[in-house]
Queue: 3 jobs
Job 1
Amino acid sequence: MRLYINIDHVATVRQARLANEPDPVRAAVVAELGGADGITVHLREDRRHIQDRDVRLLLETARTGVNLELAATSEILDLACELRPMQATLVPEKREEVTTEGGLSLADPAQVEVVRAALARLSAAGIRTALFIDPNEAAIRTSRELGVDAVELHTGEYANATGAARAEQLTRIAGAAALARSLGLAVHAGHGLTYENVAPVAAIQEIEELNIGHSVVSRAVFTGLEVAVRDMADIIRRARLV
Ligand code: PXP
């Protein structure tokens, strides 16, 4: 299993003062020292945290793979195709949201065509592609039909649920992961994962990549980022062994 660390919220702290620190590119270097298998950034249309310059510098600096999260808009797609990160994950984006609220709306035929065109552009640029989707059968089958390399299953509902509802969400994610894998899709997962809730998701064998940001950056305020990444990597490694 690969652990990709999302460093957006290092940039959030910087942008709170429109200053030049903390630098997310330096954070990427430290995350790699802590054992991150890759670095994820979301270049949002409103540039609320990560800036174009960050992505450019990150791609020159990172020793691991860079996963760029992006909405399927022409401006950001142009940039992605120019910068050519190792992987691009298409996500839905609403200006008013605090964070990504769910997977792509693949039930909407117009949206499917937007995603299809975006995937064609990214693939032509040699970029591995992923779609951020809710863990349901229809979205997985549509992803398969679209010819994407991977799906990232949205774990936000699992993270927000408690008790029996959380167990149900976990079963849903496990079922979705098995279906996606059986259709030949690589399976990633992420959103809302924390030190407390990550282990059952990491134990799902079909999932090969996790994307985790907020919880790790939050802990890093107290422990430093290298330790925070290592602690998360340890939990995932142990979960994987059982
Ligand atoms: N995966 C996707 C597609 C996301 O948009 C985000 C948040 O940017 C994450 C994973 C990471 O979520 P979190 O910050 O809650 O760990």
Note: The radius of gyration is 17 Å.
Job 2
Amino acid sequence: MNRNFVVAIDGTSGSGKTTTAKKVAEHFGWVYLETGATYRAVAYVVLKQGKDPRKESEVTQVLKGLRLDVKCSEKGQRTFVNGEDVTDYLRKDEIDKAVTPVSKMKVVREWLVGVQRKISRNQNVVVEGRDIGTIVFPDADLKIYMDAELEIRARRRKKQKGNTVSLDEVKKDLKRRDYHDSTRSESPLKKAPDAFFLDTTSLSIEGQVDWVVSKVKQLNESITSI
Ligand code: DC
């Protein structure tokens, strides 16, 4: 492949997009960018500085002094705020809660879209999130929107979290996220009109990865034959 290639993967929480994006990037030796981690990193700093994640003025103050770096490789992503590696804190429950109001703010979204575009510049990338095909990379070479039935997504999440939560709690949390992600006024989660829809309800991870890999190959063949 002799041009930079952008694959945009959007979808609901638990649809399998993170694992799929990582494995597709690994398959081609490309960079993988998990944009959810960038929203989580902002939420982390807001809490660390004792600010209120629901107050736009306080969050805006935090952004002013913030340096956010992401080191991407085929192996995965580490996220740094002001030089500190915060990757291992980003999945904590308090971040799960604080990231919802933070990710609704226009000021945060604009700031992070800039960061995400900069990170992805001049590389072959698989970028995963909620607004990648619609806002961050509307000209992506390949767009995929993933979803699965709630029951299946909840079972997958429960497996990742182990016995720390019940299946009902996981389902409740997924419904809450679906609602907030798809109804917010700024960059709501939705399928781009030119995205392929992938229902992962009855697919294994390997099945999902194979499906995306074959789409990339098909597209590359059609691009190089022009
Ligand atoms: O994918 P995730 O669960 O790590 O995302 C964390 C939060 O960030 C989630 O509430 C949705 C939000 N998010 C977003 O609004 N836009 C993105 N491109 C990625 C994530």
Note: The CA atoms of residues 10 and 130 lie 5 Å apart.
Job 3
Amino acid sequence: MSNGKPIGIFDSGIGGLTVLKEIFRELPNESTIYLGDTARVPYGIRSPETVTRYSFENTRFLFSKDIKVLVIACNTASSVSLEAIKNSVSIPVVGVIEPGAKAAVSSTRNKKVGVIGTEATIRSNSYTQAIKSIDKDIEVFSLPCPLFVPLVEEGWTDGSIAEIIADTYLMDIKYKGIDTLVLGCTHYPLLKKVLSKVMGEKVNLIDSAIETAKEIRTVLKSLSLLRTDTGDVIRNFYVTDSPERFVKVGEKFLGEKIEYIKKIELDTEA
Ligand code: DGL
């Protein structure tokens, strides 16, 4: 097995960098190829059919880079297309829903869990199903929070505007007595401070990004695909729209410089 091959990751745009950051932390030795479909973001407001089509196109591109594992970093794409992608490829595929759901189940003491995400993620019921498949007695309260994505993209991750919006959205869920809240969207980990303030310290926030990075390590290890040599680590980025904004906002998400980035055209013919 050539375990020096890169890990392929795709997201609808910049948000998946929260997952990539955790991959860098968890697996610093591994090379990565990140694809951000910036020309077609956001996925969270689109139909499952459209998101699935986009996911297949992203997968085909990453396959051309000879990856050893595919990570669907986008919660929306994981919610609606993970199974179809898994069934169509011969390498392991890791999504963000199951790792987040597992962590939520281990976290909750009172069996009341909240889930927030994009409209498409919440509509798909993916988190509720994943949580209930582990423990059917857990009550799940889910809520779409669509404004959080543009808020984070604007860099308004704290301060009064973020707090008012979070407070308004979370009002309903806050009084359900949940002790665990799943941040079911790539962008939400950047709002942790505000969300924690609004929900109160007793509510445990689950960051799917951290859980997903751990899951990738587990999958690679179980298949003996962890990189063992100490060759150069490649960290390449591809986007479907011009790279300028991605680099500017992305470096903030990632907390480090984006050195290699290229705009590509996806093959939409198949
Ligand atoms: N990446 C998406 C998610 O995690 C958020 C942005 C979008 O709507 O495309 O659901």
Note: The two ends are 29 Å apart (CA to CA).
